[in-house]
Amino acid sequence: xxxTTLVNPADATPFRDVxxxxxxxxxxxxxHALSAQRAWRALTPAxxxxxxxxxxxxxxxxxxxxxxxxxxxxxxxxTQARWEAGHVRDVLTYYSAAPERMIGKQIPVAGGIDxxxxxxxxxxxxxxxxxxxxxxxxxGFAPALAAGNAVVLKPxxxxxxxxxxxxxxxxxxxxxxxLFQVLPGKGSVVGNRFVTxxxxxKIVFTGSTEVGxxxxxxxxxxxxxxxxxxxxxxxxxxxxxxxxxxxxASAPYAVFENAGQDCCARSRIxxxxxxxxxxxxxxxxxxxxVVVGAPGDEATEMGPLxxxxxxxxxxxxxxxxxxxxFRGSAPSGPGYWFTPTVLTPASRTDPAxxxxxxxxxxxxxxxxxxxxxxxxxxxxxxxxxxxxWTRDIGRALRVSRAIESGNLSxxxxxxxxxxxxxxxxxxxxxxxxxxxxxxxxxxxxxNVFISTD
Length: 453
Ligand code: NAD
Prior knowledge:
Blueprint: E1 3-8, E2 13-19, H1 23-42, H2 45-61, H3 63-74, H4 78-96, E3 106-109, E4 112-120, E5 123-127, H5 133-146, E6 150-154, H6 161-172, E7 180-182, H7 187-196, E8 200-206, H8 209-220, E9 226-229, E10 235-238, H9 244-256, E11 268-272, H10 276-288, H11 308-315, E12 324-327, E13 341-343, H12 351-354, E14 361-367, H13 370-378, E15 382-383, E16 385-389, H14 393-402, E17 407-410, E18 425-426, E19 429-430, E20 443-451
Parallel strand pairs: 5-6, 5-8, 6-7, 8-9, 10-11, 10-16, 11-14, 13-14, 16-17
Antiparallel strand pairs: 1-2, 3-4, 4-20, 9-19, 12-13, 15-18
Helix pairs in contact: 2-4, 3-4, 3-6, 4-5, 9-10
Bound molecules: nicotinamide-adenine-dinucleotide.
Residues 127-132, 136, 154, 156-157, 187-188, 191-192, 195, 206-208, 211, 214-215, 229-232, 263, 356, 358, 384, 424, 428-429 line the site of nicotinamide-adenine-dinucleotide (NAD).
């Protein structure tokens, strides 16, 4: 039996060993899922909807339990962790309405009638990263189950606890055995087996662009559909006519939330040159005001990085001669604490400007005019998210249309709502999750012609 030792990121102490799923156990789980899926899809739509509402209710009763696990396993601040557990409940509730609304089409044709059915795909393999372990899991499993599929889910090695607990809560809520199975383990073993196993008919992968490309190539061998949610280097574009106070006060939270370990982090702040100095004056106290501290403390706004390995990776972007404008504060002592850091690189091709750091490090750059701002925002292999700050509604719309990104907000930094689509342009991904259309990614359209002759 192989195990992974989990380490509390806030104090670097090992606190639990988790058994890793072997290849044989994955194959057994997939065989189990196959029979569970047949029974699940045969239930009435109303019964499937009710089962998902029961699951949501049990999650709601365990918000504190789930949040506490995320605090110790991932170092998320308790208030954020509670929000994440509540979000899982909300995603389940939202998609619990779907089974009874999976409405096909009736298409006018000659000689009969033509109807379409939205059929479940079968077994869906969901592969989850470590940065938002439970919310991202739910974006895959809730709509997949609603559409009549079974789910096998692999959490990230460092952060499996909330997903394992959600698997237990599903059973507690009465979901059938085998329908939703959480299989902790290595990406190269468990995740890769989802990709290569012929009975897993769809992959939902969230993680790095590098691994996402391998998963996509693996899926090609079986023409297996895949949804990819990958990296980002999103721009927060601040025009001279914006409410600079509001833009500057909220900018730290748009990048330092979850210690910058957020695929939507606005890790490039692009400021129109004429207001650059004023913006920096306003940004400094906002950055220094971010409360970095113990994840269990109700006042904490930012916790530690997830692991020593990740701490080293983020640190490499802030060498001794880094162009640091100013920094916030962070606890000293054990744990993977990284101080919020604001850089002003001289070059638009500096790695801190182009690469996803995935930590509390932001690069602030000036731009000359609207065209230059758009060009700079788009100068990235990624296109996940972003913000536009301006009081000019025409400009807000022009720039929103011009930025190559899946999720933009104007005079706001919010990216995620369970009721609206989420996903990336370019190398940030393929397909969309959440919102009313997510079911399309978990069903096959079947066309049936019935002759009236
Ligand atoms: P990662 O790519 O290292 O791992 C993601 C998952 O894939 C893990 O569960 C891992 O075990 C698994 N995996 C690794 N190798 C595999 C393989 N060969 N086959 C199948 N599965 C494999 O990513 P990470 O470091 O856990 O997460 C951080 C990355 O995730 C960042 O790039 C971030 O931007 C991205 N992310 C994207 C979104 C989004 O919605 N676009 C959301 C969150 C995170």
